[in-house]
Amino acid sequence: MTDFLVNYSWIIPVYSLVGALITLPWSLGLIRKTGPRPAAYINILMTVLAFVHGSIIFNLVWTRQGQQFVFHWLQVADLDLTLSIELSPVSFGALQLVTGISLLVQIYALGYMEKDWSLARFFALMGFFEAALAGLALSDSLLLSYCLLEALTLSTYLLVGFWYAQPLVVTAARDAFLTKRVGDIALLMGIVALSTYGEGLNFSQLDSWVSGHQLDSTTAAFLGLALIAGPIGKCAQFPLNLWLDEAMEGPNPAGIMRNSIVVSAGAYVLIKLEPATTLSPVSANALILIGAITAIGTSLMAIAQIDIKRALSHSTSAYMGLVFIAVGLRQVDIAFLLLFSHAVAKALLFMSAGSVILTTNNQNVTEMGGLWSRMPATSLSFLVGSAGLLAFTPLGMFWTYRRWFNGAWDVSWWLIAIVMFVNTFSAINLTRLFRVIFLGQPQVKTRRAPEVPWQMSVPMVALMVVTLITTFAPIKWPLWLSPNTPLSLLQPELVSQYSIPLLIASGALGCIIGSTIKVRKAWARSSNIGVRFIQDLLAYDFYIEKLYDVTVIAAVSNLAKITSWLDRYIVDGAVNLVSIATIFSSNALKYNTTGQLQFYIATIVIGTGLLLWSMINSQWSIVTNYWSSLMQ
Amino acid sequence: MLSALIIIPFVSAAIIGLTPLSGKNPRNFAILTAAIILTINLFVCLQFDFQHQGIQFAQDVAWIEWIGLNYHVGIDGLSFPLILLNSLLTLIAILATSPTIQRPRLYYAMLFLLNAGAVGAFLAQDLLLFFLFYELEIVPLYFLIAIWGGTRRGYAAMKFLLYTALSGILVLASFLGLVWLTGETTFDYEILRSHTLPLASQLWLLAPLLIGVFIKIPIFPFHTWLPDAHVEASTPISVLLAGVLLKLGTYALLRFGVGLFLEGWVYLAPWLAVLAGISALYGASCAIAQRDMKKVVAYSSIAHMAYILLAATATTRLSMTAAVFQMVSHGLISAFLFLLVGMVYQKTGSRDVDYLRGLLNPERGLPVTGGLMILGVMASSGLPGMVGFISEFLVFRGSFPIFPIPTLMCLVGTGLTAVYFLLVINKVFFGRLTENLAQLPPVQWKEHAPAFVLLLLIVAFGIKPDWVTHWSEVQAIALLTGG
């Protein structure tokens, strides 16, 4: 039995895909009698199956490490494309995270999406979404991962565009797709190049190729940059970070997945690719630089947002920035831990935010307040999620940081400074959100606010418990991924001695600032022009969107207009000119048929005269000689 | 057996055109015949030996001996997928034709002539025979555009006729030159292939051939007939035009350009690769600025056909197979997109992206058409799991080692595909349904049947690409070995 389950472990991602396909009759409106609920139940059942199957394998996998399933997908000429799946604690740990959170989210969605008329379509898309994510967790081949990343891009597009009649949703879905697509195309270029230069597209083959590659440094740099472009788009890193913020227009349950797992999926591929992404120092430095810019920039943007989901989603980008830095430093174990701790805590925060939104029908935090006593489970979830995200003893992120700065890894002052910065600003952001949403006097929209129904509160509380339990993961985490694993502690340096106290202090400082600033007044636009400028600058994401409007978008659309104009008036114009010239000249020649004999004779005489002249002067031989010389 | 594929459409064209069928009969007869042709094709498929190099089921009869014309037909891995595509799309085009079309007998007769012309050109193993069929197919298409087309059909049909006639003349000039320079008395493909001319004469013969097929494919700057023809042609004709007839150009490119003039081809290849890159970017860039949905698909066709040229220039074993695969892939996807655009046009009376809005509305809009359109767009922009991804991946993977820069240009073109198509989807299908579109006639499921068949193939070949690559792999390699 166990052998059977292990041998068919590749089927786990297929479960939810099948679920999505089975529910098509409901989402297409072929079955209307039963209402859309059965579709939801089928999908949840499929996810349960995937979760149970995954759990069994996860327990077995510790003893059966290194098993691979290889599918020869396509063999053409000298090209052999294989897709492979790996059985390892990491891949199945990731799978369990995906199916677990997906299960909770789907139950949550039963409550959240209850009133939506196209519930079935939502669940079909979620099934597709989950299948792609689960496949990505197991994939051991870059080609398969790319395919699944693209499937994610599509399902993100469809899920963000779920309420497609709203104008903001339309632009958000478009931007999400196109931004990710920019990264994906660069990644595809990288894959084509890797497939040409390398030995194969499986991660293990890439690892062995990278250690002995013969590329010159420029090619290697471009290749490395192309490979990191895909994850940059997926993880919403600068300069491709804006889509995540806009995507918050979509339904919240999908937002939970997106902010916790989907962004992690991009980083997961980056981690798996690690030796290839840091092929050249240029791309490794680019990772660190991009991660640092994003971590600092989005931390700042987050504190100026008044939309509850946007405030949280900017913080997602910030934490992904830390992951990028860790990968750039080749400390992939830490990157993985960061992903894990962040995913659980952020999912919980988003569930809590979703409950608030559903109850108050509102995303604007300035119109909230006093929900603490009315929605205790939601409030508690927000607190636990926040604690899990900050360096708060004894929860997940604290232990992750502890592992990072315990002296085993080579860390420097600038790194601890960035982490402190992110931690401080997260603390400010979360504290001020908590104050303004849950504390204070209730406002109009929060006066009648009952706790959410059980479909939502049960998953939320369950995830709260999970967040508390997963603390043990960073403590017990063995080192699996790093190529040169630091097994024993280095000499504890000054950095590592002071880093943990510093981090806790930065969190505390953030909380103090967050609880002392005047929240409501600060959001009313300040009359001080300097303060107002900074407020707007942060609230509008440093005007990056405007910048894109006047640069990239304007360039593409103008180029398109110019090309189209050229096509219409120059290329096609030339064609039409030829035809008009033909018609005009033939019309002109028409006047030759005058009926006057003298004119005809004159034409004949001139024509034969010219012919005779050219033959006598042997002009023809020049032409024929020229042509025959060319022919030989 | 192969001759049946040519004769049956001719005969049925005559039957439909000349006998007094009325009412639904011409349509039913046409469907039946097209189904028979497809069945014969599938039968050929069973008999076909994919590992065999060279032509199969050959038939060689002297026709007009004093000019060296033989009726020499045969099938190989290069033409086989295209013939199958041709018969499939003919059936789909007939099914997609409105049952209440005007002058049905003439229409279906023309459609079968078109089918016969295309299949004859793909089967011909004699240069002159190829040219005859290549020209033959222009005539019915001219009428199909000029009679059942849109408002500017006269202009578009005449432009198409002049362009493609010029293309035919150039191709013929090249063939005549080849026979003259080799001193042969026959136009037989295999015999002419066994001669190797000096490079200079190869280039002189290749140049008119290339311009001729570039008009047909079409490659920038010879493409301007295509958007006009597509916009004015009715939906089934657009399906056939994009799905099959453009493939005549790329087929001639591989069969004659590469097959007969390999040395000259390799000499010109770097320039042609750059031209392919320019054509891909140009088509994509024009598509972004279009307001008519059909024009967007037409320009996207130009961009995607350029990948075939790119693959052909690389002349590696992989890239030649990829070129054939991309032909099949483009044939299916563009036909699919034209069907859906046609459906939108039929139901709303408009293809203007600024006018249409919110068609995804589940109650009063066209939700299924919209859903299919999203899938088609994704297939076209190379989403994995559908045939567009793997065929383009093979093209790029095949040409990257030889011509990296043009390959990267084409990859950017692929990225732009998502841009122009997504703009269309966003404008036409997303948003709130406008009041003037609120009373759309509902779409019956059977109206979508042709589109579903194509979608099934697009997905099936996307998941199992070796079904297509096995057809042409051996023969595509044989083109490069010379003789």
TrEMBL record, chain A:
Pfam families: Proton_antipo_M (PF00361), Proton_antipo_N (PF00662)
One Gene Ontology cellular component annotation held by this UniProt entry: membrane
Domain named NADH-Ubiquinone oxidoreductase (complex I) chain 5 N-terminal: residues: 73-123
Topology of this chain in the membrane: Multi-pass membrane protein
Record's subcellular location: Endomembrane system; Membrane
InterPro entries documented for this protein: ND/Mrp_TM, NU5C-like, NU5C2, Proton_antipo_N
Domain (NADH:quinone oxidoreductase/Mrp antiporter transmembrane): residue spans on this chain: 139-424
Positions of transmembrane segments: 6-28, 40-62, 90-112, 119-137, 143-165, 177-198, 218-244, 256-273, 285-304, 311-329, 335-359, 380-399, 411-431, 452-475, 495-517, 597-616
Role description: NDH-1 shuttles electrons from NAD(P)H, via FMN and iron-sulfur (Fe-S) centers, to quinones in the respiratory chain. The immediate electron acceptor for the enzyme in this species is believed to be plastoquinone. Couples the redox reaction to proton translocation (for every two electrons transferred, four hydrogen ions are translocated across the cytoplasmic membrane), and thus conserves the redox energy in a proton gradient.
Name assigned to this protein: NAD(P)H-quinone oxidoreductase subunit F
TrEMBL record, chain B:
InterPro entries listed in its UniProt record: NADH_Q_OxRdtase_chainM/4, NADH_UbQ_OxRdtase, ND/Mrp_TM
One GO CC term, this protein: membrane
Keyword Translocase carried by entry: no
Keywords noted in UniProt: Membrane, Transmembrane, Transmembrane helix
Membrane topology, as annotated: Multi-pass membrane protein
The UniProt record lists the keyword Membrane: yes
One Pfam family per UniProt: Proton_antipo_M
TM ranges: 6-22, 29-50, 70-94, 106-124, 130-148, 160-183, 203-226, 238-258, 264-284, 296-315, 327-345, 366-390, 402-425
Family: Belongs to the complex I subunit 4 family.
Known role: NDH-1 shuttles electrons from NAD(P)H, via FMN and iron-sulfur (Fe-S) centers, to quinones in the respiratory chain. The immediate electron acceptor for the enzyme in this species is believed to be plastoquinone. Couples the redox reaction to proton translocation (for every two electrons transferred, four hydrogen ions are translocated across the cytoplasmic membrane), and thus conserves the redox energy in a proton gradient.
Name this protein carries in UniProt: NADH-quinone oxidoreductase subunit M
Organism: Waterburya agarophytonicola KI4
Lineage start: Bacteria, Bacillati, Cyanobacteriota, Cyanophyceae, Pleurocapsales
